[in-house]
UniProtKB/TrEMBL annotation:
Subcellular location: Cytoplasm
Coiled coil feature spans: none
Domain of life, per lineage: Bacteria
Keyword Ligase included in the entry's annotation: no
A Pfam family assignment: Nitroreductase
Name recorded for this polypeptide: Nitroreductase
GO biological process, any: cellular response to oxidative stress
Keyword field: Cytoplasm, Oxidoreductase
Organism annotation: Bifidobacterium aerophilum
MF annotations from Gene Ontology: oxidoreductase activity
Length: 200
C-alpha cells in the first residue's frame, strides 16, 4: 500500500489537542502554503484561500466563536457544554481557516457563462480538496486536527478582526495540535458497498 493511502487512513478527527507541536510554526506555514499551491481547482481558477492562526490570534478566533454563540445558546447548562467544546479547540496549537474567494467564481461566471451555474459547485470541490489535503499533511507531521463549521455566524467578526477581503467567504475552521488522547475507532462501510466496478 502506498504512503498516500496510509496517510489518508491515519487522518482522523482529533478533538483532544494540546498546544504543543512536533514541528515549528514556520514549517506549519510552509506546509499549508505548499499544499494550497499544489491542490487543483477547476479551470485552474485557484479560488482557495487559507489563513493560519497561532498564539493570541488563535485564541481570539475562539473567543469570537464563544462571544457569537453566547446570545444564541441561552440555556446556561447548554452553554457550559458549548463553551467546553470551543475551549477544546482553543487549546490546540493553532487553527487553519479555509476561504473561498468569491471574486474568482464571479469572474469565471462572467467569462464563461455557459458554465455559470456550475462554478459555485466547482469552488466547493476545490475547497474540500484543500481541506482534506491540509488535514492529511498535518496528520502526516504528527499533528491532530478536526474540521469545524461555525460559519457563517462568525464570518463578519473574524473578517474584521484579521482584516480579510470582503470577497473571501469562510468555509471551515481546522484547529490543530498534538493529540492528547487519540480518537477511538469508527465504523467504515466496506469498499464493495461504496465502489462499483464494470468491465474488469
Amino acid at each position: 500500500m502506498s504512503n498516500f493511502v496510509e496517510d489518508l487512513q491515519a487522518r482522523r478527527s482529533q478533538y483532544a489537542l494540546t498546544s504543543e507541536s512536533p514541528i515549528s510554526d514556520q514549517e506549519i506555514v510552509k506546509l499549508v502554503e505548499d499544499v494550497t499551491v499544489a491542490v487543483p481547482s477547476a479551470f485552474n481558477s485557484q479560488p482557495q484561500r487559507a489563513v493560519v492562526l497561532f498564539g493570541d490570534a488563535n485564541q481570539k478566533l475562539w473567543d469570537i466563536v464563544k462571544e457569537t454563540l453566547r446570545p444564541i445558546v441561552n440555556d446556561e447548562e447548554a452553554f457550559k457544554a458549548t463553551e467546553a467544546k470551543v475551549n477544546s479547540f482553543a487549546a490546540g496549537h493553532g487553527t487553519v481557516l479555509f476561504y473561498d474567494d468569491t471574486d474568482v467564481t464571479k469572474k469565471l461566471q462572467e467569462n464563461i457563462p455557459a458554465y455559470a451555474a456550475n462554478f459555485p459547485g466547482f469552488a466547493r470541490d476545490a475547497a474540500g480538496m484543500l481541506q482534506l489535503a491540509v488535514w492529511t499533511a498535518l496528520s502526516e507531521q504528527g499533528l491532530g486536527a478536526s474540521l469545524q463549521h461555525y460559519n457563517p455566524l462568525i464570518d463578519e467578526a473574524v473578517a474584521a478582526e484579521f482584516g480579510l477581503p470582503a470577497s473571501w467567504k469562510l468555509q471551515a475552521q481546522m484547529p490543530f495540535g498534538t493529540v492528547a488522547q487519540p480518537a477511538g475507532p469508527v465504523d467504515k462501510q466496506p469498499a464493495d458497498a461504496r465502489v462499483k466496478v464494470f468491465g474488469l
